[in-house]
Specification:
Strand content: 15-25%
Oligomer: single chain
Number of domains: 1
Shape: globular
Largest sheet: 5 strands, mixed
Order of helices and strands: EEHEEEHH
CATH class: Alpha Beta
Number of helices: 3
Radius of gyration: 18 Å
CATH superfamily: Beta-grasp domain
Strand order of the largest sheet: 2-1-5-3-4
CATH architecture: Roll
């Protein structure tokens, strides 16, 4: 591909990306073949996303793109243009742990902790608050 075929804001080497990550908006020019995990960790300093197998097998790199889990180790960062990304750093709000994080702590679901961010992000789309019922009469 040559730069004239790449389209607006792109050439064969870089992509203009505008995205929302953990409720914060970012605009960056990034290498077109850069992986999302590298962009999150190196460019945005979000180190919770881990890289292990680099083959979409282990889940340590899981993040949400528009609410759906993806393997950030094989997902091109250029493909988040115009999309919302959520990482483990965005689960807690104002210093208060998300209920999933609290449950992991309460039930000792951490093991060594390396994969825990990915487990939390894979579980996040399944989590729904349990509605409270009125007391019986």
């Amino acid at each position: 591909m040559n730069p004239t075929e790449a389209g607006p804001g792109r050439d064969a080497r870089t992509s203009a990306v505008r995205t929302v990550v953990n409720r914060s908006e970012f605009t960056r020019s990034i290498e077109s073949r850069r992986m999302l995990a590298d962009f999150l960790r190196d460019d945005l300093g979000l180190r919770g996303t881990k890289v292990s197998c680099e083959m979409q097998v282990c889940g340590a790199c899981s993040v949400l793109v528009d609410g759906q889990p993806v393997s950030a180790c094989t997902f091109l960062a250029a493909d988040i243009d115009g999309h919302q990304v959520d990482t483990v750093e965005g689960l807690a709000i104002d210093g208060k742990l998300h209920p999933l994080q609290s449950a992991f702590v309460e039930h000792f679901a951490l093991q060594c902790g390396f994969c825990t961010p990915g487990f939390l992000m894979m579980a996040r789309p399944c989590w729904r608050p349990i509605p409270t019922r009125p007391p019986p009469r």
